[in-house]
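Input.
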Amino acid sequence: MKELKTRSIEAIEEKMGNVDESSLRHLVLQSAKSFKTSWIGLGQSLYAVWKDKAYREWGFNTFDSYTMKEIGIRKDTALKLLRSYHFLEKEGPSYLVENRSEKVNPSSVPTYESVNALRLASNNKNIDRSDYAAIKDKVFQRGKDAREIKKDLTQLIKQREELEPEEAWKKKKLAVVRRFMSALKSLSRELKITKVLPSRFIEETDRLIAKLEGEVSRISEKTMND
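Output.
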């Protein structure tokens, strides 16, 4: 992780010296220091801090300011850690047990980016359960990194679209119509505010929007029924 460089680790160690070793705050600092070998401990600790809003007791108004100033982690990285750890609790509880008992070699622990990519794949409607199971195996058993996982996902989606060209075309058509309808709605709002054109043009625009909404509903319903 680029945010935790030598200077940052030194700063963390200095802060650890001024904090009660039995406290949650010290635990998070220790986990941050060990982040290069295992992000899971840090993710678990940060999840506890975020859930209980413990950072407020330490003088920080927001979770973002705490992670940035205390352990040198940016907002987007902190969020990925939280989401990845929470996802891991649901999808790989046995893996967490092994990690806590130190049965897992730190070098074999999947990165939080890989787990986050798996999390996104679990919500992707273009990925079926068998494909997801194969990707999950690559993350937890083979240690594939996020770049490889994303590449595999792209190939799977592309293959699915090649096998189902008509469905892919319907989705593309629906997306184009929705973008056009969204642009018209924005234009209609602007015309109503600025009144640069006669009301009949606004009425025509609204009628076209209504027709487009009907078309979107028709395409969506047909797609679901096919």
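Residues 190 and 210 are 17 Å apart (CA to CA).
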